[in-house]
Amino acid sequence: MPGSTVPFGLPQSLLVLGGTSEIALATARRLIARGARTVWLAGRPSPALEQAAAQLRTLGADTRTVAFDALDPESHETALGKVFAEGDIDLVLLAFGILGDQAHDERDPVRAVRVAQTNYTGAVSAGLVTARALQTQGHGSLVVLSSVAGERARRADFIYGSSKAGLDAFAQGLGDALHGTGVHAMVVRPGHVRTAAMAGRERIPLATTPEAVATAIELGLRRRSEAVWVPGALRLVMTALRHIPRTLFRRLPL
């Protein structure tokens, strides 16, 4: 872009699906520091969403909010269409999701289904809607926040992990469908992220932070990567874990 001060491969405008996500906001802050000037935060209307928008405005970005509910896919095309009607979007960051509570959710299938609907069904809808909009404008990136939990189901969080496995497979397939269209798709697979939602839980090896994930996203955008692991060592760890026999895998303290 002539006269642009934005580094090659980095967006000037972004739409965050999951506007109160700590990882997404860390990414927005980093991209604003690199020259992004327009940010849309999509999420359920709340004081937290408005506060997040206000904080980004103090960094110099024109930040707006849009009502978005992952559990209401019928509304996605209308809600997100309003954003694209205001101008091109260089980056869509799909960052919404819920952890759930494995112990409680196993005993309450309705709660388990809510995890699946939020993390997978809602993402399928929003991903397809935004991918089509990016194709229509002829450029842009779609970054999908997945998780290493989707690499292999663990006893401790198989409801959440299975939803992320579905999301990850969907995002990879969507990336293949977008290849050659001018739209770049990237899957991000963080390990345990130390956020406010995870406060009080025991420390886990190879844990990371929202800021480290944001740094990895920036690097992935520059390189036009298709998949990013955070930290990078998790790629080797999960490759090994995927091939461990199931009888042995059950015994591991995971």
Automatic annotation (TrEMBL):
UniProt cross-references to Pfam families, sorted A to Z: adh_short
Gene3D superfamilies hit by this protein: NAD(P)-binding Rossmann-like Domain (3.40.50.720)
Keyword vocabulary terms for this entry: Oxidoreductase
GO molecular function, one term: oxidoreductase activity
Tagged with keyword Hydrolase: no
Keyword S-adenosyl-L-methionine among record annotations: no
Superkingdom assignment: Bacteria
InterPro entries from the UniProt entry: KR_dom, NAD(P)-bd_dom_sf, Sc_DH/Rdtase_CS, SDR_fam
Domain Ketoreductase: 12-193
NCBIfam families registered for this protein in UniProt: PRK07904.1
Family per similarity comment: Belongs to the short-chain dehydrogenases/reductases (SDR) family.
Identification of the protein by name: Short-chain dehydrogenase
Organism placement in taxonomy: Bacteria, Bacillati, Actinomycetota, Actinomycetes, Kitasatosporales
